[in-house]
Design a protein that fits this description.
The chain has 377 residues and is mainly β. 0% of the residues lie in helices and 43% in strands. Strands 1-2-3-4 form a four-stranded antiparallel β-sheet, with no helix packed on it. It has a four-stranded antiparallel β-sheet with strand order 5-6-7-8, with no helix packed on it. A four-stranded antiparallel β-sheet has the order 9-10-11-12, with no helix packed on it. The radius of gyration is 19 Å and the shape is globular. The chain starts with a strand and ends with a strand.
C-alpha cells in the first residue's frame, strides 16, 4: 500500500479533472498514480498506476495544460537519479499518455522539485526548478509536447543565496516571472528549515538570455519566508504568497508596470503557524487561497476583493480533515481546481500517513466543504 507524498490537479481538454500523485518507492512497482473524472463534473475513477520515472521516489508532481489542444503534461523530479521527468497526453482519448521521458539533470546537478511549468504565449512550455543551489530553466522547442528539450540554462543563485524552492508563472505581458526562496546558510537544508528571503527575476524580452537580475522581495513583515506560491488574477496581475516563520500568510501584488513596490500584507495575525498554500481563480474572477495549519488537521481560506485586487479577506477556518491518532500532523500538498460547472475541488494529503482527502463545493460560488477520504492506491 504505497504512501502518497504529493498531489496535483489539472483540467483536461473536455473540462474533466485529472489528479496525479507521487508515492514512496515500493520495490519495482509504480511510484506515480492518477485518477480522473468520468466526464466533466463526473464521478472519480479509482487510482490507476502512472508508471515509474527514473529511480527512487518522485517529489511532488506538477501539471499544466497546453494551450494548443488542451493536452496535459506532467513534470516531476526524482530523488534517485535527481533528474526531471515528464509525460504528456498523446491524443484526445483521456487515458492515452506517452512514456516517462527524462529532461536530465540541470547542469549535471541534482534537481529538487516541485518543477514549475509555465505556458508561453507562443504555446511552448518553460520548466523552472532548483538544482545544485541554483535556479534553472528549460524551454520546449515547439508548442507540441515532445520528449527532448534543449539543455537547461542557469538563472543562478537568488542574490547569491542557496535556492531552495521556486514558483513561476507568465506575467501580464506573457513573459516568465520567477519567485525563489533563498537561504544564505551553506549547510544542508531539510524541509523544516526551508526559510529565508524571497527574490524574483523575469524575462525582459524574446531572446533566451533576456532576463532581469535577481531583485530582493525581502522578508514579509520582517520574518523569514517559506515556500512561495504565485497566482494570477483576472486582470493579469501576479500575486505572491508565502507563510512566514512566526505565523501568518503574507501576500504581495505585482504592479501593472511589472514591479513589486507594494508592501507585504498579512492575511492573518501571526498567532497561527501555517505550513503550505495553494491558490486558484474562482468563478467570480477572484483569487481563492487555501492554507494548511502547521501540526494540525485544519484548513483555512482567504478571498481576494472584487473591487480592490490588493485587498483580501482575513484567513478564516475552512474545514477540519477527520483524522485518527496515527494521522496527527501537518496536512501537506494542497491542490485546487474548478469543476467544469465552477464548483471548487480541493485535495490534500494527511502528512503522517499519506492518506488523500477531498473537499468539494456543494454549489458554484460556495466553499469546498463537503469532504470524503480517498483510499491509498
Amino acid at each position: 500500500m504505497p504512501q502518497l507524498t504529493g498531489l496535483t490537479l489539472g483540467k483536461r481538454h473536455d473540462g474533466s479533472l485529472e489528479l496525479v500523485a507521487a508515492s514512496v518507492a515500493d520495490g519495482n512497482g509504480p511510484t506515480m498514480w492518477h485518477a480522473w473524472q468520468r466526464g466533466p463534473n463526473g464521478d472519480w475513477t479509482g487510482w490507476h498506476p502512472f508508471g515509474k520515472p527514473g529511480h527512487g521516489a518522485p517529489e511532488r508532481p506538477s501539471i499544466i495544460q497546453h494551450g494548443l489542444d488542451g493536452r496535459l503534461e506532467v513534470f516531476v523530479a526524482t530523488d534517485g537519479d535527481q533528474a526531471v521527468w515528464h509525460r504528456w497526453q498523446t491524443g484526445p482519448e483521456l487515458d492515452r499518455w506517452s512514456d516517462w521521458e527524462s529532461l536530465g539533470k540541470p547542469g549535471g546537478q541534482e534537481a529538487e522539485g516541485p518543477v514549475a511549468p509555465v505556458l508561453l504565449e507562443d504555446g511552448r512550455l518553460t520548466a523552472v526548478v532548483t538544482a545544485g543551489r541554483r535556479v534553472w530553466r528549460a524551454t520546449s522547442p515547439r508548442a507540441e509536447p515532445q520528449a527532448h528539450w534543449p539543455a537547461w540554462s542557469a538563472l543562478g543563485r537568488p542574490g547569491g543565496a542557496t535556492a531552495m524552492a521556486v514558483a513561476a508563472l507568465s506575467n501580464a505581458v506573457g513573459r516568465v516571472e520567477v519567485a525563489a526562496l533563498g537561504q544564505t546558510a551553506e549547510s544542508s537544508i531539510t524541509p523544516a528549515e526551508m526559510e529565508g528571503n524571497l527574490w524574483h527575476r523575469a524575462q525582459t524580452g524574446p531572446e533566451p538570455d533576456d532576463w532581469s537580475d535577481w531583485e530582493s522581495l525581502g522578508e514579509p513583515g520582517g520574518h523569514r519566508a517559506r515556500r512561495p506560491v504565485l497566482g494570477q488574477d483576472s486582470g493579469g496581475a501576479l500575486h505572491l504568497f508565502t507563510p512566514a516563520s512566526v505565523g501568518a500568510v503574507w501576500h504581495k501584488e505585482q504592479h501593472r508596470d511589472l514591479s513589486w513596490p507594494r508592501p507585504w500584507q498579512a492575511l492573518a495575525q501571526p498567532v497561527i503557524e501555517f505550513a503550505e498554500t495553494a491558490v486558484m481563480l474562482d468563478t467570480g474572477g477572484r483569487l481563492f487561497l487555501v492554507a494548511t495549519e502547521f501540526a494540525s488537521n485544519r484548513l483555512w481560506y482567504a478571498v481576494q476583493d472584487n473591487h480592490h485586487p490588493n485587498t483580501w479577506s482575513p484567513l478564516s477556518p475552512l474545514a477540519a480533515v477527520p483524522v485518527t491518532p496515527e494521522d496527527l500532523g501537518t496536512l501537506i500538498s494542497p491542490t485546487l481546481h474548478l469543476n467544469d460547472d465552477g464548483r471548487a475541488q480541493l485535495f490534500v494529503l494527511i502528512g503522517a500517513t499519506g492518506k488523500p482527502y477531498q473537499l468539494t463545493a456543494p454549489a458554484t460560488g460556495q466553499l469546498p466543504t463537503v469532504g470524503r477520504t480517498w483510499p491509498h492506491p
